Amino acid sequence: MRMRGLAALSGAIWIAAVVIVVVVSSASTAIVLLLGVLGLLLIATLAISLSSVRQGAGMERNLGRRMNKLAKQGKQQAQSAATSAPVPANDPKIDSLVRREVDRSFKQLEALQNLYSIIDIRHALPASRGWPASPDLLLMLVDLIDRHRPKVVVECGSGLSTLCFALAMRRFGIDGRVIALEHLETYAEETRELLRRHGVDDIAEVRYAPLEPVRIGEVAVDWYAGEAWQDITDVELFFVDGPPSALSPHSRYPSVPFFLDRLPSGAHIVLDDYRRAKEQDVVKRWQAENPDRLTVETVPLEKGAALIRVS
Length: 311
Ligand SMILES: C[S@@+](CC[C@H](N)C(=O)[O-])C[C@H]1O[C@@H](n2cnc3c(N)ncnc32)[C@H](O)[C@@H]1O
What we know:
The protein is of the alpha/beta class. It has helices at about 1-25, 30-85, 90-120, 135-150, 160-170, 185-195, 255-260, 275-290, and strands at about 150-155, 175-180, 205-210, 210-215, 220-225, 235-240, 270, 295-300, 305-310. The chain has a seven-stranded mixed β-sheet with strand order 3-2-1-6-7-9-8, sandwiched between helices. It has a two-stranded antiparallel sheet with strand order 4-5. A hairpin with a 2-residue loop joins strand 4 (about 210-215) and strand 5. The longest helix has about 55 residues, at about 30-85. The site of S-adenosylmethionine (SAM) has 16 residues, from helix 5.
């Protein structure tokens, strides 16, 4: 609107100026018309130019406003993503968990590689870790066999460990035997098949020993049927990895009361899963009942182990 008013005012001034020039200088009609047309053209050009400049400035202002708005929206979205995300990417807790897990896995791989280079494996093995012993514990047990050369190895709970013991006995040329007690027939047969496949069923045997109720002092619990183990003596390495603690917090307690008299001085007892409170409690009872015969060492393995020396 302001632009149109300015153009009209300029036009009026121009016409007035032309009329004054004509009256004062008595110029011809043609010159007067020419001056009039030129003046109007000039005013129109001026008006169009001013209007374009104004439009450009307006567009620039609008663009600036839109950009500001977009920047503000982006910032708000980024802020809300940061506050509503459940776990920010650089959370130190996640970092330390990942680091710990990588470290744990590396230790198990290292132990497994070391174990496989010691015992001679010619056929497929079942997975370790989880229900079976972890590689770090299997390595420790095979190392005990290497250093102490036990003639009789007994374990509560059969599986991969039974095979590793038998392969270790063969590898170190020990003229001895391995006996595993197993309360589940299917696992007993699976382990027997594993021993046959690896050609060590002449070194290790799995005895099916269903659980039966026993009472030792105030502890009443189910343990391996006596007829499966009554004849065993001179056990130099005793590995306690069953029955499962899920059955009772005292599941593994009877092993020492029933076997200590069958273990000579210098023998070793190894208890798996010693990180668990149940197993720690069981060892406290064993120690309290046999303070002069048992020396307990905690081994910081993945699942924890108690290494107990018998004197
Ligand atoms: C801790 S496992 C013994 C593992 C064995 N000493 C080893 O290291 O391979 C104790 C008992 O759990 C049972 N068991 C083994 N694997 C199992 C599985 N995947 N699910 C349920 N019970 C299992 C068997 O009866 C076994 O005697």
